[in-house]
Description:
The protein is mostly beta strands. It is built from two helices and eleven strands, in the order H-E-H-E-E-E-E-E-E-E-E-E-E.
Amino acid sequence: MGIAAQDTSFRSKHAAIFFPYPMYKEKWRSSIGFTMMTTPEDITEEVRLRIPAGDYHLLRKINNHFVLDSRLFFQVLQNHLSTGIHYVKPINKNIYFSTGNDIGFWFGFLKLSGFNSKALGWLDYPNMSIGYKTRRNLLIALKAQVSVNLYYQAANGAVKYSSSQNYYNGETFTLSLEQPFYNKKHLTLAFSAINNKFYWQTWALFYKTNRKIFYPQVTVGFIL
């Protein structure tokens, strides 16, 4: 109680999306931006595809310790929506912690000459974050997330395939930096190391491999 009571003034100077900070005074917080992911050479061979996606992130306060965290990646032809409840707790005036679980749904479609493909799936994302608030208004957070495949369905013309087999898909580690930017707005810059057997943005290239593949990703966002 003492830590929370002393810490409520933090909100007036800092707005954050990734940083695991309780939403004491606000009910909603959101950000808009984009992500940029590069496909590995062992998937596309000599061609390196840099795949951008729009990124909308929305937080809804439940109480001083629980937040509803929802996120939408949109690329028109393929999209991903996740939502989950996160528990947030200050450890001291500089260090913060959160843990939670998100359920994700993705879908994609691709229609070309002689090629009519579509797919969808469900994923589970248990996660935890730790954040450090510096004296220079910089918020640093490290998030560890695992991915579990729950369901996959694909169709190419009349050929259809589906699987409800659950399997451990891999891990993602994200380092995020958030700080004041301009006119009381805040900027988010995040670097993600995605190490998965299957990543939803590459569904049109292949289903999954028996080994994990590394996908680097950069996120830029403006907190609204």
